[in-house]
Design a protein that fits this description.
- With about 160 residues, the chain is mainly α.
- The protein has one domain.
- Helices cover about 60% and strands about 0% of the residues.
- The protein has helices at about 5-20, 35-40, 45-55, 75-85, 100-115, 120-125, 135-155.
- Helix 3 (about 45-55) crosses helix 7 (about 135-155) and helix 5 (about 100-115) packs antiparallel against helix 7.
- It holds the Pfam family Haem_bd.
- This is Haem-binding domain-containing protein.
- InterPro entries: Haem-bd (IPR025992).
- Keywords: Signal.
């Protein structure tokens, strides 16, 4: 057998083998966002935007696309989600102190305002996550208001 065929077969075997070993799923079924939603009280439109544009990568529950079942994409997505949750995890809002909450909301403002979030790669396959200018402004207004309330009350409520 030629070397090229051997390499192709080896790669195929590795690819098939990878399908049997998937990373852990980010699928918490508890009411993991209750504290965040209760404290920040986003308007219905903003809550919907957060659900469609933010929570998949920044909470303990991800709604996975079909292609997540195919390795190595599943590993890439798992790493991406872990990275996103490392920056901000809305499901762990109750573990942040007032200063951390303010900083997290400040980062929301900065990343949405600059267009960094939602990530372009995410919006390629999640068209509903693409934000219009008015949607960005709604998120920014809510986040700034939550920061102001946090500064006055010690809680963004």
């Amino acid at each position: 057998m030629k070397l090229g065929k051997k390499i192709a077969w080896a790669l195929l075997i590795v690819f098939v083998g990878m399908q049997f070993f998937q990373p852990d799923k980010n699928e918490d079924t508890s009411d993991h966002l209750a504290t965040f939603l209760s404290e920040t009280n986003p308007p219905d439109q903003v809550e919907h935007l957060l659900k469609t544009s933010c929570f998949d990568c920044h909470s303990n529950h991800t709604v996975y696309p079909w292609y997540n079942r195919v390795a190595p994409v599943s590993y890439w997505l798992a790493d991406h989600i872990d990275h996103g949750k490392g920056h901000l995890n809305f499901s762990e809002w109750d573990t942040y102190d007032a200063g951390e909450k303010d900083h997290k909301l400040e980062e929301v403002v900065e990343t949405v305002e600059s267009g960094e979030m939602p990530l372009r790669e995410y919006t390629w396959t999640h068209a509903e996550a693409r934000l219009t200018e008015s949607q960005r402004n709604a998120i920014l207004e809510w986040a700034r208001l939550s920061r102001s309330r946090l500064a006055v009350n010690g809680s963004p409520k």
